[in-house]
Automatic annotation (TrEMBL):
InterPro entries associated with the record: Cu-oxidase_2nd, Cu-oxidase_fam, Cupredoxin
Pfam family membership, one: Cu-oxidase
PANTHER family in the record: FI03373P-RELATED (PTHR11709:SF394), MULTI-COPPER OXIDASE (PTHR11709)
GO annotation terms (biological process): iron ion transport
GO MF: metal ion binding; oxidoreductase activity
CC annotations in GO: plasma membrane
Organism superkingdom: Eukaryota
Name this polypeptide is given: Plastocyanin-like domain-containing protein
Keyword Transferase attributed: no
Residue span, Plastocyanin-like domain: 28-176
Higher taxonomy: Eukaryota, Metazoa, Spiralia, Lophotrochozoa, Mollusca
Keywords assigned by UniProt, alphabetized: Copper, Metal-binding, Oxidoreductase
Keyword Hydrolase tagged: no
């Protein structure tokens, strides 16, 4: 319920950093959780009393896999760069076009992932690409770390993707890591094409 965006500070020449830092081989992906129906008064009431479906049944409190509570709110959908699907049921959604990142085969690309989420952490990965390489966290370069995915909550993580898979379309996925009873877990998805 406000404006947000990215502010990228490029290191000065001579600093030891992993390239690329800017240009057509760098993408920004802002991840956000988005609840559709809530104003600040309604959110306050839900914080106190919980959230209920149309039949009056309370949604379970959202927790991480360790049992730590995140929120009494249901996460409606996730967004990448302001785009994402809102599922009204397990098969019906709003048909919004997803964010696209165009890459070339066998080139390295830096993705600057920024979490603008308010309540939920997300697990981020690229379908069909293992591994990806973490390069920086909260603006600080780190030794390149090979991972299959990472978890992000209000912070910034840069990762390197080598577009070495078969030519096609792959999903950049930000899946909510909350634990709830066998219900659909909202995900943000974004395509990138080789």
């Amino acid at each position: 319920m406000g404006l947000y965006g990215s502010l990228i500070i490029i290191p000065t020449p001579g600093q030891k950093v992993v390239l690329p830092q800017e240009g057509d081989k760098v993408f920004v992906a802002i991840i956000q959780d988005w609840n559709h129906d809530d104003d600040e008064n309604e959110l306050y009431q839900k914080m106190l009393l919980g959230d209920f479906d149309s039949s009056g049944k309370r949604f379970p409190e959202t927790k991480d896999p360790s049992g730590a509570q995140y929120s009494r709110f249901k996460c409606h959908s996730g967004l990448i760069n302001g785009r994402g699907r809102f599922y009204r049921s397990s098969t019906v959604h709003n048909d919004v076009p997803l964010e696209r990142f165009e890459v070339e085969e066998n080139k390295d690309y830096r993705f600057r992932v920024i979490s603008a989420a308010t309540m939920y952490p997300f697990r981020v990965f690229v379908e069909g690409h293992r591994p990806i390489y973490i390069l920086a966290s909260d603006g600080f370069e780190i030794d390149k770390k090979e991972v299959e995915s990472f978890i992000i909550h209000p912070e910034r993580i840069d990762f390197l993707l080598n577009a070495d898979a078969k030519i096609g379309t792959y999903l950049l996925v930000a899946g909510n890591i909350r634990r709830i009873s066998a219900k659909r877990i909202p995900r943000s998805r974004s395509y990138y094409s080789l």
